[in-house]
Amino acid sequence: xxxxxxxxxxxLRARLRRPSDALGGASIGTVPILWNNVDVEELRLGTDPDNxxxxxxxxxxxxxxxxxxxxxxxxxxxxxxxxxxxxxxxYAALPATAAGLDGDALENGRxxxxxxxxxxxxxxxxxxxxxxxxxxxxxRASDPATPRFADSAWAGLVAVLHTLADEAIDAGHRxxxxxxxxxxxxxxxxxxxxxxxxxxxxxxxxxxxGHYLVGGGDPVDAxxxxxxxxxxxxxxxxxxxxxxxxxxxxxxxxxxxIRARIFTELGAGALDLMGCLRVLAERGYDGxxxxxxxxxxxxxxxxxxxGRRVLAHALEVIGHERAAVGSRA
Length: 329
Description:
The protein is of the alpha/beta class.
């Protein structure tokens, strides 16, 4: 491991998590898509997985999503333990069309669950994979012309999610479904339908606040309304100019939006980060806060460090706010 000289990663993590901070029971991780984008090949920087893990630890994160090219099983557990990191999640994208899940979707999810279990991970984060017929409408999915999941497709999706959730629980893990721009579960209406159709004790929600914003929702309102149903959180900010271009149709396609850096450094975009964190603090959220940015104009380690420090400052401020209220009570 080649951590930067000076303060060690464990010491830096301690300095970024003060006892007075809000959300002291939550864990803070990041998603290595910033270094090697899984979906857009030209945005893969080719960074060696060992170097990515070094950088994730160096800038103060406690955990990571399984990244492209990462080792598996015992080798992954060892690589994480050496750096004081945890495997927060493995992401499972289930292939689908408007007619429903592809025939191999369940086995795809089971393979990702195996990787989670073998790597000693915690959350199976499940989403629908991007679909060409829907991807073009990302950011403006309220358009009446937007392709929709067929009514018959919902039952199949729910059955697969319940099966994966039961298998995850039996193996000691949790499942959280991730609504995602450019897929058939993107808009607040689609999210609500999924929530109504699934068992709250088995299927949690990973609210990616950036994707929810792109999908036309208010993340602060969603966190307040959904409450305990949100068991996993991706913190992602949104460039307002790119979002406006998506909504007007001037920029079509989620892939093009990623290339235009629709997701920006935490604290630099349209997301009400403080509002989101305040709602989570009110309910005593103790799951993962995963800082995520699919692409950046800045070097990946720099963008990851910005996100971690912006989050640290926000949690410090909210912690002081809550302490001040408590002292007046």
